[in-house]
Amino acid sequence: MRDEVSEVDAMIKRGWLMQLKAIMPGLCFFKPLIFIICLLPFASLVSGAINQQLGPNPVEAMIRGFGDWGIYFILIGLTISPARKLFKLNWLIQYRRMIGLFAFFYVCMHFSSYIWFEQYFDIEKIIQDIIKRPFIAIGFVSFLMLIPLAITSTNKMMRRLKKNWARIHKLIYPVSILTLLHYFMMVKADYLVPIVLLVILSGLLGYRFLPKLLKRS
Asked: Which of 41, 59, 60, 102 is the one with CA 20 to 30 A from 210?
């Protein structure tokens, strides 16, 4: 009886996935919509700053808000390949570049907000802050590592770099680890969100690297 029930469940899941795979390739027409959705956090933070709705410390709220969304988009980008392989949703790959560039965009806004609204472009003060606070240094390193990923994200660069393109884009793995470490070191009290993000990142990296490590051993 249990075997029959599990068989029915499997058939339902397969049917659902088949319908999803049949419908979803048309989502290429929704790229502008997804682009707009990805911009909503930016619009919300900017609107909140203009209308003085970011609380008693709007500068910190804006810096952290952009940083949070930078991490979220990095994790979403890392989720695309496993989801594509596990559920045979090959159409997801067309959104990976967009998601990756939005991750870079929000990290850029995070960094720009920090040097503009908190440090007022004072280079000496920024350097002192990087030396004084290690989590700033770690965030700065992860930002620098993201730059080559953004620069080489085009099809032209992919063709030009060939195999080196894949090597360069493996930087996203240390970037994701450093970014989350930056987040953990920045948080002072409530660690719930960083822990959830750590679990997600551990799962995504484990999916990629555990099978390879097990084969070698």
From this structure: 102
| DSSP character string of 9-30 | HHHHHHHHHHHHHHHGGGGGGG
**Cα–Cα distance measured from residue 78 to residue 87, given in angstroms and rounded to the nearest whole number:** 15
Segment-wise mean pLDDT, segments of 10 residues, the chain, 217 residues: 44 50 55 92 95 91 95 96 88 90 97 92 91 92 95 92 90 95 88 93 91 73
pTM strictly above 0.90: no
3-class secondary-structure state, position 89: coil
What residues contact residue 61 under an 8 Å CB cut-off, 6+ apart?
45, 48, 54, 55
CA 21 to chain centre: 24
